[in-house]
Amino acid sequence: MHILGTGSYAPERILTNHDLEAMVATSDTWIRERTGIRERRIAAEGEVTSDMAVAAALKALAMAETDAADLDAIIVATISPDMPMPACAAIVQAKLGAHKAFAFDLSAACAGSLYGMTIADQFIRTGSAKRILVIGAELLSRLVDWTDRNTCILFGDAAGALVLGPSPDPDRGLLSAHLHTDGTMVPSLCIPGGGSRHPQSAEVLEHSLHKIAMNGREVYKFAVRVLPEALNEAFAANGVVAGDIDHIVSHQANLRIVESVLDRVGIPMEKCWLNLDRYGNTSSASLPISLDEANRAGRLKPGDLVAMMAIGAGMAWGSALMRW
After folding, report:
1. Is 281 part of the annotated catalytic residue set?
2. For residue 113, which of 136, 178, 192, 309 is within the disulfide window of CB 3.0 to 4.6 Å?
3. Is 110 a catalytic residue?
4. Is 150 among the catalytic positions?
5. Is the pTM of this model over 0.85?
């Protein structure tokens, strides 16, 4: 499987750290030093997740010179769909006019696009699909508690998209992917309310159980332990070492996490495309946005070895290695 086209979209409205200073007890310096974030994007009133997904998808389809009508499948990774039912992917399918494509959502939070790409690879390898659109789209500004300074400073709205198909060169494309989950970590990062455990109610709303709840310290400790293991797993599976890697494309939740992980595996930071300062944590959109920006900037050359990593609620995480 190879990436034939990339695309991304971010809303126009920018919310800076200085803006947040007027909303919660925080400061630009505090946020930058602990997260690396300077600003994030916020969706416009009336703008929904599928709108952002379609905007990113159209750019990826144009680069791939693929008509939406020729897509075999659409996979949308999101924890913030337009509505609980049906899948956001079904709405995206209709908006694109991709009448031939089967469409479904997957929920792996910030690791969603990596999971989606891995699933698409299986369809393509078996020959049951030739063109698959994978989208990571999140409208997290409507899922955060804007009175909780520990979480509201982190997240932003955006979407990223990939058009995937068979690799024209057997030596290029996705070499391997390695996915993991640890359900014992659910309390560390979740949205407790709104499901069958705590159905929507006045009490859920009163206690903000329908908003993101996170134990940042536990998430950080877990991420810096398992992500190096996942990268080394990918290296070992393909007989390469850290020095062979040309680029790192990472989900970006926190600059400290990225720095710590790359330091532990021995990859210099200059090999990692960073945009966290401009977008914040965009969850499943983060990895495909980074791929798109690096791709359009000409950073990714044919034959380059690209390592990917992502981690999110679940906890769900993984790595992948691709020959560009």
Report:
1. yes
2. 136
3. yes
4. no
5. yes
